Amino acid sequence: MTDTISPKKGVPVWAQVLIWGGLLGLLALVAIGLVRAQRPMLIVGAQVPDFTLPLYEGYDYGGAEEIALSDLRGRVVVVNFWASWCKPCEGEAADLEAAWRLYQPGGEVVFLGVDYVDTEPDARSYLAKFDITYPNGPDMGTEISRIFNRNLGVPETYFIDRSGILRYIKIGPFVSPEEIQAVIEAILLEG
Amino acid sequence: MKFARLGLLAFLSLVFASLFLSAGPAPAVLAQQPTPADDEVNAIAQELFCPVCENVPLDVCPTEACRQWRELIRQMLAEGKSEEEIQQYFVENYGARVLSEPPREGINWLVYVVPPLAFLGGAYLLFRAFRTWQRLAREPEAEAGSGSAPAAPPEDEYAARFEAELKKRK
Fold this sequence. Notes:
The complex is a heterodimer of chains A (191) and B (170).
Chain A: H1 13-37, E1 52-54, E2 66-68, E3 76-82, H2 87-103, E4 109-115, H3 120-129, E5 136-138, H4 143-147, E6 156-160, E7 166-171, H5 177-190
Parallel strand pairs in A: 3-4, 4-5
Antiparallel strand pairs in A: 1-2, 3-6, 6-7
Helix pairs in contact in A: 2-5
Chain B: H1 2-23, H2 38-45, H3 64-78, H4 83-94, H5 109-146, H6 157-169
Helix pairs in contact in B: 2-3
């Protein structure tokens, strides 16, 4: 009866620390990802983060090949997301251009066309087809879309006031230039 | 007369020679680029994902956006661009999310490192568990074969004494 059983060997402490540390690290990463994914969309009344839109050749803004939102402080900015493959976008293209031509001489309002996941040849055909003249450019790497937390589709239009605050969101196409004009006038009146 | 004919010949030769030289080299004939086949386009498209509809490979996506993308791939192939160059163009324009495999950089490495490590760790734990189970299964057999009293856990003293008594009576 002198036999003894050797104490059971467990997983070494360093390995346990490594495993638990790794698991906790992974859980933290998943949690961060979930929090980011559930971040609320950019809401009306929020300050719009700055972004820079590279412009298509021939669609520059005062000779500049790219335009930053911060450069437009003091003006009302209309940011329209569109794509050449988007049929509803075609419905509002002429209305947007008409509204732009109405406000362009005053210089108080700037329209920006953000081309969402599109190919340049098709985008240029679209711009030419609808005789669009306001500054337009591609959403490189979909970075601008992510600022606006867009996940619904195109077209979408965001109205930003003179101090960079988001004032109105239009999901879907406009039905007339007057609809666009009404929103802009309301923002201009508020100062 | 002979000199006059020779002179005329020399003059005409000079005129033709100057005309020939002034014409310059003949314009290069541009070879018609063959249009890449659907299979070539799809070989690249299947490595990319539609940015509009989530989790749909570009080669099978029926949307107009993806049709345009496939045409763009065809155009770039016809221009002689390589698969890497085309993928790079798509990443620059539409973001890394269009890739079917995340690029091996930064935090993306976790995708490639964690699963094999977890698999190896699991295999090691299973190996250890199997060895322990094997040892536990062999110990009673070995003890029975050696004729000595089976080792009993200290807490099971009654069973050990019982086994010892049985041995004595045999």
